[in-house]
């Protein structure tokens, strides 16, 4: 038996970084290792070569454990294999490596606690993460006051607090995004279910009466075949007529069911553009578009985005919608001389626009690229 699992903050982080530690993912994570320059400088000042080697090795292992969170643990999280004990063990490993830096790096080793606090804010449950960071802060402040030779300038505690606060903000943003996506998914599922129910009701209404009458007349024709062949033939002719009418009604219902939806086409357009690695700048609401314009605008979205994906070589696609006009623009190579506006899809779109009393404009977009625009009301 399987159950639906709500995505966690760690799942959301994995989705944003990607399935593997790509080139830019490693760079985004590794750039913060710059702050380990403090303990490295302190270790470099030591005269004992063996001590230096051990110190450098410890710092390298700590940096690897930090980057490991964005590599190994991310893959585990995406497969939902990350357990609480694994989270605690990983933080314990990082904390142990940080403590091992102290004999060679002195109080500058406390810089590592900033990385540990950041990882904890992403890895643990929020309450546990806050408690863990509070313990790190308390331990840092106490250590700076009781360890001989260490001085408290307030920078370490402030850095830990600031790093944890920044990751907390990121965590909240990801959580809101997860909740919003879940709500959208639920609404989409409800809309699909409602549409299924509507279509089922339509088919029931269309076929229920017709099939009932057909059944009655067929039974009557069977009884009349021997007693009254003429009457039976008339009943059979009525059955044929009713069957043809029911078939036409079903076809009409299916045709209506397949009408394009502007909202659905925008969702499909976003997916198609993302698959083609084209940045999509699409509207999020269609409330201002009158109902009578939405099907035509949906055809414009379908045709325009298809052309962008297939022919444009663009990096960005923008769709702008008002009550009376829709524009599809890209930053690609622009219209083809002598043939950019004469494709079969555009011909069909012009015919639909003519039927709706709208005008179609194709040409070069401002700043380059291709522009397809349809305006209702000539």
UniProtKB/TrEMBL annotation:
Histidine kinase/HSP90-like ATPase domain: residues covered: 298-375
Pfam families according to UniProt: HATPase_c, HisKA_3
MF-aspect GO terms: phosphorelay sensor kinase activity; protein dimerization activity
Segments forming domain Signal transduction histidine kinase subgroup 3 dimerisation and phosphoacceptor: 195-259
Record carries keyword Transmembrane helix: yes
Keywords: Kinase, Membrane, Transferase, Transmembrane, Transmembrane helix, Two-component regulatory system
Name of the protein in its database record: Sensor histidine kinase
Native organism: Kribbella jiaozuonensis
């Amino acid at each position: 038996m399987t159950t639906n699992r709500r995505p966690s903050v760690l799942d959301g982080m994995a989705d944003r970084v990607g399935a593997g530690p790509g080139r830019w993912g490693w760079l985004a994570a590794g750039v913060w290792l710059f702050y380990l320059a403090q303990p490295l400088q302190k270790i470099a000042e030591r005269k004992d070569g063996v001590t230096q080697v051990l110190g450098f090795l410890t710092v390298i292992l700590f940096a690897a454990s930090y980057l490991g969170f964005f590599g190994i643990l991310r893959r585990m999280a995406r497969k939902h294999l990350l357990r609480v004990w694994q989270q605690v063990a990983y933080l314990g490993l990082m904390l142990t490596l940080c403590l091992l830096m102290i004999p060679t790096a002195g109080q500058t080793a406390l810089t590592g606690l900033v990385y540990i606090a950041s990882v904890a804010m992403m890895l643990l449950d929020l309450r546990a993460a806050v408690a863990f960071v509070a313990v790190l802060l308390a331990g840092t402040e106490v250590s700076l006051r009781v360890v001989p030779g260490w001085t408290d300038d307030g920078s370490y505690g402030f850095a830990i607090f600031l790093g944890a606060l920044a990751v907390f903000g990121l965590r909240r943003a990801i959580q809101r995004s997860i909740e919003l996506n879940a709500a959208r998914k639920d609404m989409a599922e409800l809309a699909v279910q409602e549409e299924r129910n509507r279509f089922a009701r339509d088919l029931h209404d269309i076929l229920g009466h017709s099939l009932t009458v057909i059944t009655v007349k067929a039974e009557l024709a069977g009884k009349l075949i021997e007693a009254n062949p003429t009457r039976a033939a008339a009943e059979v002719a009525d059955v044929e007529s009713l069957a043809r009418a029911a078939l036409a009604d079903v076809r009409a219902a299916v045709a209506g069911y397949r009408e394009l939806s502007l909202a659905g086409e925008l969702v499909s357009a976003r997916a198609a553009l993302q698959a083609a690695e084209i940045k999509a700048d699409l509207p999020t609401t269609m409330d201002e578009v009158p109902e009578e314009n939405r099907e035509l605008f949906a055809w414009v979205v379908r045709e325009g985005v298809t052309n962008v994906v297939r022919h444009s070589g663009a990096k960005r696609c923008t769709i702008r919608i008002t009550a009376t006009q829709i524009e599809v623009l890209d930053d690609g190579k622009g219209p083809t001389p002598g043939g950019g506006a004469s494709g079969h899809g555009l011909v069909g779109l012009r015919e639909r626009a003519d039927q709706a009393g709208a005008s179609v404009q194709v040409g070069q977009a401002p700043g380059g690229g291709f522009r397809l625009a349809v305006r209702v009301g000539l």
